[in-house]
Amino acid sequence: MSGPRRRSRVAALQILHQMDVNGELDADAALGMYFGQLAAGGGAIAVDEDEPAASAETGPVDRALVEQMIRGVFKNRAELDQMLAAASKNWRVERMAV
Q1: What's the pLDDT tens digit per position in 23-59?
Q2: What are the angstrom distances between the C-alpha of 17 and each of 8, 52, 80?
Q3: How many helices and strands in the chain, by DSSP H and E?
Q4: Cβ neighbours around 28 below 10 Å, total
Q5: Cα separation of 93 and 37, whole Å?
């Protein structure tokens, strides 16, 4: 069974992916959309999507931790992109898979 910190990191990655796919989403909108849907689904997320729903590990996330991670990435996105671009060879950030 995974703990709330791991589930929180999974949730943060899901939110960041959605923000990358939909460039119009800011941190607050993405968090609101995610937690609005999460609350409607019972307040738990499946950690392992390969597992059948009945056996997938679910449980609460640490919402404050998720919000801290998302807002931190959103605030420092340009700097993070620069670091990624500097570390990559022959790949522009725009070409990297989401």
Answers
A1: 899 999 999 999 998 656 655 555 566 655 444 557 8
A2: 14, 23, 15
A3: 4, 0
A4: 12
A5: 30
